[in-house]
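Before the break, one more example. Copy the sequence into your notebook; we will annotate it together after we see the structure.
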Amino acid sequence: MLTIAQVERETGLSKDVLRVWERRYGFPVPSRDEAGDRLYDAAQVERLRTIKRLMDRGFRPGRLFAMSPEAFEALASAPAAGGPAMALDKACKAAIECILSDDNLGLRQSLNQLLAKQGLQRFVQDTVPVLNEQIGNSWASGRLAVHQEHLYSEEISRLLRSAIGNLPAGNQPPCVLLTTLSGEEHGLGLLMVEGMLAPEGARCISLGLQTPIEEIAMAASAHEIDVLVLSFSVAFPPRRGLAELQRMRAAIPERIEIWAGGGMTRGLLRHKLPGVLWTPELTDCLQRLQDWRIRHAVVV
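Here is what the structure looks like once it is written out:
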């Protein structure tokens, strides 16, 4: 069994990153000694080494932790190669360096170039999660100041709003209302979902952040929506999230689906709430959209 300091030396992953992963992804799962300090067995340390090696090849942790054991093993045993993942990782690291050096113009230019090269959906699906992951790791390791994290959030939000606003107005079903509940202050997830759905022609209406349940119900009726998208960050308390979702479900007609997504929902997948579809990963949104259109015989 190794201590967290020994694991840091063995894997090259900082103690802060290990703690963040433990909270965010549920891995590693250390035991505790008599003093309450973390201890890691050999199997976990070996997997952490593999994750670090794959990260060095350009794969983001969020993607690796979401893989099935079979898919992870297949990827880990595949020969290393360059290609899109490496190029993307390099471009994202350049953007992060702009943030760390307080180069806001360089950051804006880097983000604009990535968006122009990839298109909105690929940028949202492939690049923004990588940037978010690297920002989180930089924050956990103490490299990133509060004002730098705020700069990133504002720049990426500004860019996504602009890109979404430049799309033709969506007029195809379903009509989707996007917001967060009271107490949820993180809105980037909403913009990312809208960035996935809007290019598919869905009519998207955003209420922004922290909308009271009663107001959401009024908006749902006023706009005759088909789907309500609610985003929950990993910081939102799961027990409260379940209770609020039950209240929200009771406040709107049964015909309206609720798609609940974000970091909090990854730990709630075993809970079944009628009329609430867990949508923990960004790519799940397109599958939800396709399923809704098939059920309602919508041809786009």
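Residues 172 and 300 are 7 Å apart (CA to CA). The first helix runs from residue 4 to 11. Try to locate both features in your own notes.
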